[in-house]
Amino acid sequence: xxxxxxxxxxxxxxxxxxxxxxxxxxxxxxxxxxxxxxxxxxxxxxxxxxxxxxxxxxxxxxxxxxxxxxxxxxxxxxxxxxxxxxxxxxxxxxxxxxxxxxxxxxxxxxxxxxxxxxxxxxxxxxxxxxxxxxxxxxxxxxxxxxxxxxxxxxxxxxxxxxxxxxxxxxxxxxxxxxxxxx
Length: 182
Prior knowledge:
This protein is mainly α. 79% of the residues lie in helices and 0% in strands.
């Protein structure tokens, strides 16, 4: 994204309000992300944020439901995790809500570890790697970026995730570098 020069900022400040409103309407019509940001900040507030949260949660989890029977399951799961994380990233970009991000990551990881933890430790390490990176992201978010009260709330599932990864995917250096416990 280009930097905003002084001349550009000054030109924006000189645009009449009516013209700015037209520009905002055009941008919101063409760009879903911009629309959602405006909707959260100026129109619907928390209600819009809740709707986007639920929509992104449904989309992220639906990626796992369609892993398919074709090809190698672990490769399909790795692709599904990548797509699901894109939905979570969209939510974070639009809302900047770290607690919501943690909730989305937790629901994704719960679903994966509940249904597909037996697929870890095979020769298809791309799945193990994607799951380890996503788990590490959740760990870093909870341990370093959120208030310590959330660490207490997420401690049990996080311990389970780390334990499973260390027992089944310890052949990866990345997993070995991750903490064994909180």
